[in-house]
Design goal:
The protein is α+β, with helices and mostly antiparallel strands. It contains 2 helices and 4 strands. The protein has helices at residues 18-22, 50-54, and strands spanning 4-8, 30-33, 36-39, 60-64. The strands form 2 sheets. It has a two-stranded antiparallel ribbon. Strand 2 (30-33) and strand 3 form a beta hairpin. It starts with a strand and ends in a 9-residue tail after the last strand. It binds iron/sulfur cluster (2 copies).
Length: 73
């Protein structure tokens, strides 16, 4: 169970889906919807930091799981 999980800055995110593609978690932590990345399964995060390192616009940080998101409404 993750202690940390991603927080995506939607002012930076361009919806490229690289985070979704590199995430090794099952189920995938991310979902791409409406041109943005959403954190749908934060509990599945293994804290590997692949998404943090791969995001082309540095939109992702790992934070305490209670602060992870956003989730789609
Ligand atoms: S890799 Fe970064 S810019 Fe691309 S969808 Fe994920 S958060 Fe958004
Ligand atoms: S840190 Fe790793 S497991 Fe967690 S969301 Fe990013 S790519 Fe997926």
């Amino acid at each position: 169970m993750a202690k940390r999980a991603p927080k995506v800055d939607h002012e930076k995110c361009i919806g490229c889906a690289v985070c979704y593609s590199v995430c090794p978690a099952s189920p995938n932590v991310y979902e791409i919807k409406d041109g943005k990345s959403w954190v749908v399964h934060p509990e599945a995060c293994t804290e590997c930091e692949s998404c943090v390192q791969s995001c082309p616009v540095q939109a992702i940080t790992l934070v305490d799981i209670s602060e992870a998101g956003p989730k789609p409404s």
